[in-house]
Amino acid sequence: MAQARLAAEAIERAFPELTAELVPIVTRGDRILDRPLVEFGGKGAFISEFERALLEGRIDGAVHSAKDMPEELAKGLVIAAALPREDAGDVLVTVKGRPLPDGPFLVGTGSPRRQVQIGEMRNARCALLRGNIQTRLNKLREGEYDAILLAAAGLKRMGLLSDPEFSFERLPEKEFIPAGGQGIIAVESREHTEFSHVLAAINDPAAFRSLAAERLVLKRLGAGCTGAVGVYSYSENGSFHIKLMKGTESGILRREISGALEEYEALAAAVTEGLDHE
Ligand SMILES: NCc1[nH]cc(CCC(=O)O)c1CC(=O)O
């Protein structure tokens, strides 16, 4: 809802004569909190009810965390806009005054991508953790875990990164690779509507390019959200860069590629060469 408000504000800034009405929709992904996402439809669990509302014309735009969007959208629907990317990285959260033990520590996360990367980077083992950000922080506070892993973007948007009760260690996104689309808010819409120019006006081209490249990589890997896959793309010094990681039986496979900005689709294809739907 906080995200929908950001999109609504962007629309009302660009078109002062318009009013964006917010329509709350609760999805299965929000309701089922005691099982890992992969067990009940993966990313689609957050999206399908929005898509139905779009196709039935009950809403004109659906605002999503881009990283929760499935590889394939329903027919006739497109990503019409991406808002400027918030911090794309992950954060290791601990309780202030409760430092990590010297030996192996227990990290709460349900994400295979985070599990394999933290296992490689630190002396950590992982246990399932779901629920909204506040629930996750509560479980950390109650001592169920030594640390938890969360997206910086979600913490920032909720104003939690300054919470004095917790310590936040930002993991560099070029090493601890985020989920495709992490930190980006995307607006999904019907392909051609009287509303398309409104969404085009709030689109951030750099975020849109990164999202397109990262979604292409995910699609070529056939990753869904069941695989341990991370992909992060960005432009720097006039070039476009893509980094990907994939957990395999023999460890983490990492690849990266750089090239011209406008070649982002070809770069996404090239960086996944030979990895397709393995
Ligand atoms: N998986 C749930 C989810 N979807 C988007 C975010 C964070 C915000 C974002 O990436 O834009 C989160 C929380 C988290 O992973 O910590």
Automatic annotation (TrEMBL):
The UniProt record lists the keyword tRNA processing: no
Family matches, as Pfam families: Porphobil_deam
Molecular function (Gene Ontology), one example: hydroxymethylbilane synthase activity
Catalysed reactions, semicolon-separated: 4 porphobilinogen + H2O = hydroxymethylbilane + 4 NH4(+)
Keywords per UniProt: Porphyrin biosynthesis, Transferase
EC identifiers of the protein: 2.5.1.61
Superkingdom classification of source: Bacteria
Sequence ranges assigned to domain Porphobilinogen deaminase N-terminal in this UniProt record: 1-194
Classification via InterPro entries: HemC (IPR000860), Porphobilin_deaminase_N (IPR022417), Porphobilinogen_deaminase_C_sf (IPR036803)
Protein family per UniProt: Belongs to the HMBS family.
Function summary: Tetrapolymerization of the monopyrrole PBG into the hydroxymethylbilane pre-uroporphyrinogen in several discrete steps.
UniProt-recorded name of the protein: Hydroxymethylbilane synthase
